[in-house]
Structure formats: structure tokens, C-alpha cells
Amino acid sequence: MKKLCQLLLCLMLVAVIVAVVPHNATADTSFDDDSYQNTETYKFLQQFVADNPQRSNQQEELLAADWIFQRFSGVSGVNVAMEQFTVNGDYIYQSQNVVATIDNPNTNKSIVIGAHYDASASSQGANDNATGITALYLTLQRVAAYADKNPLPFDVTFVAFGAEEQGLVGSAEYANRHFGQLENVLVMFNIDSIVNGDYLYVAVENKPTDMEDLVLSCTKPSLNLTHKPYAKGTYGVIDMFGYGYYETIQGSDHTSFRLEGVPTVFYFSGNYNVKLWDFAESADINKQTMNTPMDSMSNLNKYNGSLVVERIEGVADSIFATITNSTFEQVAGNARKQLVNLKFWYNPLWPTLVVVALIALLGFLAWKHYRKLQKGSILGTAEIKNTTVFHQPDAEDIFTFKK
User: Fold this and answer.
1) In terms of domains, do 240 and 269 share one?
2) In the chain, count of helices (H) and strands (E)?
3) pLDDT score, position 111
4) Residue 213 and residue 334 in one domain
5) Is residue 63 part of a domain?
6) What's the rounded Cα separation, in Å, for the pair 290 and 128?
7) What is the CATH number of the domain that holds 291?
8) Residue 135 and residue 70 share a domain
9) Residue segments in the chain with a per-residue pLDDT below the cut of 70
């Protein structure tokens, strides 16, 4: 009995300690072992940020694009080009996409793998999106080495998009420039901000699909990749990009392809468990860094440690394993049939029609109310007339009384 009381006392003490310790007291997951910083993956990420600490205007984006162009050009078997375009954002300037292609002359089918390299003006963009650019480069290396000995049954195009933070401008320009070829794009893979969030998600459609199942089955369990919750972060009235509805994940470059009917696979990190309905980057305030000065290499290291390399390499492995899987071409070929029919159910006119219907209903109700007030007014001001055409007979008119 005494031992039981001691055990209960200990459990109560632990409960009190857990209750009073601040939530983020255990948020710092930095590792004493910094060996992950010696990997080629980490060195690429660190060098990219160090050489391009700001990537939000014409000159800064050009320097970053040139940096990526040189790295892409160093991969054997890859054709690299720079595609310039004009940005009409906060101000007008020139930007560019860096496009690397592994061609198969025997097919007109292709896939696109992309990540944006620019960052907001106040941020180093270490997580958003230097991590994505690093994963894109690793994937390029692996696919190129594989295709050298095992030609893929489709072209693979890798795109480092500019001006994403200005409103998905780079990806929209790419989609417009290559519009005639989009019908031959089987799938577009997009990588954006994959490390700093509490969870690593993949989003395909706002419902289960065969492509989602294939991606998850081709991904190592240790990566803890999960599908984005289908219902959360989706709004039926707001329409920012032309879907007919708004989903929080639409603010990245896959949207420019999805709007043209191209199936997409989107890798990103975050947390859908913090808010009731919407998306948050993290439950830890120290990791809520997107588009802020806190999105830096030092912050990424301090609060993620070796997870920085694990997630970057894990996403690259996931994409590579998916597109080289023996069933990928068949699954990708059927992916368009499993898209949500945006032209009907999510037509951009639906919100407008709903608003028009509500206005019409309110107008009708207002008219009915006005008619009721008008009728009441007439009844309230009418004069009582004492003249009658007929009068009710009294008793003397009907009966004769005997005296």
C-alpha cells in the first residue's frame, strides 16, 4: 500500500510538472551531433542561402537563377535553359525560370518537377524555399543518373521558378509559354517549404486518388509522410486563383498547372492540428517563420537539426521512387480522370450565382415587407363611413304586438 501511494504521488508530481512547463519548452529539437552538416545535401542548402541571402528583386533573383543554372548545368545528360519574363507585382521587373530537361526523343509525354527559388523581401527563405530547391537538385541528379542507363518513357523537366512570392508569376508564365504542351504533361510535382513544419504532407486532390496511394507506397516509412487532411483548409466561397473555391495549399506553383487540368503532387510541411479548420506552420511559435526574418539557416538548424537533411533527401527519394516505379506511367495516365471537376462543381461562377441568388432573395423579402407596411398604412389611416345602403331591421318591422 505504501508503495502504491508513493507511485501515485510520483505520477501526480509528473502531471504537475507537465502542466506548468510552457508548451515550447521542449520545442528545441537541435542535436548535439551536427554530423548532418557534413553531408552534400546540407552543404548545397547552406551555400545557396549564403550566396543568395536575399532573392526578392530583379538583381537578386537573377543572381540566384545564375547560381542554380550553373549547378544544373553540371549534371550530365541535362539540357539547361533560362526563360525570362516580366513581373507585374509590387513593382515591374524582369525575372526568369531555370529549366533543365532530360529528353526522350521517342515520346511526347512528360512530367514536370518544380520548386521556387525566390523569397520574400524580409526573409532569407531558408525553409521557404531553399529546402525545396535543394530537394529539386537532388532529384535532378538521381533521375539523370538513372535515365543514363534506364531511359524513362517520358521527358522529365525540372523548373526552378522565379517570382512565386509575387503571386505564382514564374509558374504561371511557364504554363502560358508551354500551354500547347500541357496536355502531354502526366503529372507536375511541386516542392515548397518541406522542413520547418511539424508534419510533412503530400497533397494530390481533395480526395483519395491512385496517385496519392502510389506516392505514399513509394515513400520510406521513416519520412512520416502523410496526406494533407482533405477537408481542412478548404473554403467554398473565397476564390483567389480561379478554382471556384479556396484551399490554403493553392498558394504555391502547382496551382498554375492544376488550373490547366494537369494532375499535381505537392510536398510541403505544416500542421493542420493546431487550428480547428485551417493550416498553421507549427504549434511552436519559434518555428512560425514563413515570410519573416526568422526563416534563416540558424533557425532551421536550431529547431530541426538533422531533420533538415532527412526531409530534403526523403522528398527527393520519394519523387524518384515514384516516377521510376513500374506502375507510375499507368497511374499517371489515369490521373486526369480522378481530378475534381473544377469546371462544374468548382466553377468560378458558382460563388457569383450564390451572391446573385441571395441578393434576389433579400430583394423579394424586402418587397414583401414593404407591401405589408403599405397595407398596414392604408388600413391605419382609412376613414370609418357611417352611411349604409342597407340597415338591419328591428323587432317592430318583423312582429306585430297585440295590446
Assistant:
1) yes
2) 12, 10
3) 98
4) yes
5) yes
6) 7
7) 3.40.630.10
8) yes
9) 1-32, 341-352, 375-403
Alpha carbons 58 and 105: distance in angstroms, whole number: 35
**Same-domain pairing of 360 and 269:** no
Which domain covers residue 277, as residue numbers?
Answer: 34-345
Distance CA 248, CA 357 (A): 27
pLDDT at 2: 42
Residues 239, 369: one domain?
Answer: no
Structural domains in the chain (count): 2
b/e burial code for range 89-110 (CB count within 10 A of at least 16 → b): eeeebebbbbbbbbbbeeeebb
Q: Looking at residue 26, what is its pLDDT?
A: 31
Q: Residue 10's pLDDT is what?
A: 47
Residue 238 belongs to a domain: yes
The pTM of the full predicted model, rounded to 2 decimals, is 0.80
Of 249, 240, 259, 311, the closest CA to residue 280 belongs to 249
- Is 193 within 8 Å of 120 (Cβ atoms)? no
* pLDDT score, position 72: 98
Shared domain for 326 and 355, answered yes or no, is no
Cβ-defined contacts of 17-24 (< 8 Å, 24+):
23/283, 23/284, 24/284, 24/285, 24/286
Q: Are residues 255 and 368 in the same domain?
A: no
The DSSP-derived string for 252-309 is STHHHHHTTT--EEEEEEEBSSSSSSS-BS-SSGGG--TTSTT-SHHHHHHHHTTHHH
Q: Is residue 322 part of a domain?
A: yes
162 in Cβ contact with 96 (< 8 Å): yes
- Tell me, rounded to whole angstroms, the distance of Cα 70 from its chain centroid: 29
What's the grid cell of residue 81? 535553359
Q: Which three-class secondary structure state does DSSP give residue 342?
A: coil
Residues 6+ away with beta carbon under 8 Å from 216: 202, 225, 226, 227
Q: Are residues 254 and 355 in the same domain?
A: no
CB 324 within 8 A of CB 152: yes
**pLDDT at residue 354, as a whole number:** 72
Looking at residue 344, its pLDDT comes to: 52
Please indicate, yes or no, if residue 388 is contained in any of the structural domains: no
